[in-house]
Amino acid sequence: MDLFDTLMKRRSIRSFEDRPIPPEVVDRLLDAANNAPSGGNIQPLSIVVVEQADARKELAEMVGRQPWVRNAPLSMVFCLDFYRVKRWAAAFDVEFLGERALGSFLIAYADLMCAAQNVVALAESEGLGSVYIGTIQASISRAREFFSMPDYVLPLMVLSLGYPKSVPSTIPKLATDVVVHRERYSVPSDEEISEAYETKYGDISDDVDTYLERAYIEAVERDRQDGPGWVADAVERMKKLDVKSNAEFLFNLRYPQRLMVGMNSRLIDAMRKAGFDFGRLGEGSDDGDA
Ligand SMILES: Cc1cc2nc3c(=O)[nH]c(=O)nc-3n(C[C@H](O)[C@H](O)[C@H](O)COP(=O)(O)O)c2cc1C
User: Fold this and answer.
1) 28 and 97, same domain (yes or no)
2) Do 124 and 218 fall into the same domain?
3) Is residue 44 domain-shared with residue 108, that is, in the same domain?
4) Whose CA is nearest to atom 23 of ligand 1?
5) Which residue of 13, 53, 185, 209 is most buried, as measured by CB atoms within 10 A?
């Protein structure tokens, strides 16, 4: 299969066969990660490979009891790692202050995702499936402690991998021309925006099971693996919140926006504990936009 077809058929996989990934395949995935692009080629990242059952269980708990993390034979914890860089710089009496530079942080996070996405693409072409787990970001301190990470190391993304047992067929996407702008950003009208998302998610008044397969596959898959609970809970909350639109479903029910903002203090606290401090944003020398 050519690369385009491989990428077009890729789906996040949350149901894995109970069989290990051969070590030589794991090594290839890790080499692909390590060969990813990196800003300035500094490679400020580390990957913790998690295969042991008890660690998989603990990781699944950390990320909010996602059963596929426990059931996947392998997870990779992608960490932004300024620890190694700082030690290297210090060994040569050089100052490295990435932990205080938001720009360095953003580039390093981009590096980390480039590495992870190399793994996703190669995994797909090897007949494996994968799913990103972003909720590790709510448990940074706990994960740092569990994996014995030194200062300046932040576990920011998990990728769980294995041989797919089932592949979702109902995941909607925006039309490509909604996200593509040619030469200049073309500001869409309210109607165009609504139409784009309605086309993506479909009618909220559809049969609720069909709707949740499209809009909340995690709840459906969770119930399949850990027994009923999540779908019923989502349906109850839809009623309670009187959800009448796709936007309400996403931003009032799935990702309540005030709660997301409330997460800031937890994230900042975890980052401070790891030695990161950007001060007040805007502090320091400001040469304006480059
Ligand atoms: C940054 C990021 C974080 C994600 N976090 C989770 C997660 O915590 N749990 C999960 O089951 N899926 C997670 N996903 C997978 C998305 O739910 C999935 O990509 C999305 O539903 C689209 O489906 P697709 O990957 O099959 O195209 C994440 C994906 C990304 C890119």
Assistant:
1) yes
2) no
3) yes
4) 12
5) 13
CA atoms within 13 A on the CB side of 96: 20
Question: Looking at ligand 1, which atom is closest to the CA of residue 218?
Answer: 11
Question: Has residue 283 been placed in a domain?
Answer: no
Task: Look up the CATH number of the domain holding residue 53.
Answer: 3.40.109.10
**Total number of domains in the chain:** 2
Q: The domain containing residue 203 runs over which residues?
A: 176-258
Q: Is the CB of 171 under 6 A from ligand 1?
A: yes
Q: What is the mean pLDDT of residues 25-54?
A: 98
150 to 107, 140, 276: CA distances (angstroms): 21, 12, 12
Whole-number pLDDT of residue 279: 86
Q: Nearest C-alpha to atom 10 of ligand 1 is from which residue?
A: 133
183 and 152 in a single domain? The answer is: no
Q: What is the pLDDT of residues 187-202, one digit of tens each?
A: 999 999 999 999 999 9
Which residues partner with 239 through β-bridges? none
250 band by pLDDT with thresholds 50, 70 and 90: very high
Give the residue, by CA position, lying nearest to ligand 1 atom 8: 133
Question: In ligand 1, which atom is closest to the CA atom of 135?
Answer: 8
And the tokens for 275?
A: 């030695």
Q: Is residue 282 part of a domain?
A: no
Q: What's the mean per-residue pLDDT of the chain?
A: 96
Q: How far is the CA of 89 from the centre of ligand 1 (A)?
A: 36
pLDDT digits (tens, 9 = 90+) for 6-17: 999 999 999 999
Please tell me the distance between residue 145's alpha carbon and the centre of ligand 1 in angstroms.
25
pTM of this prediction exceeds 0.90: yes
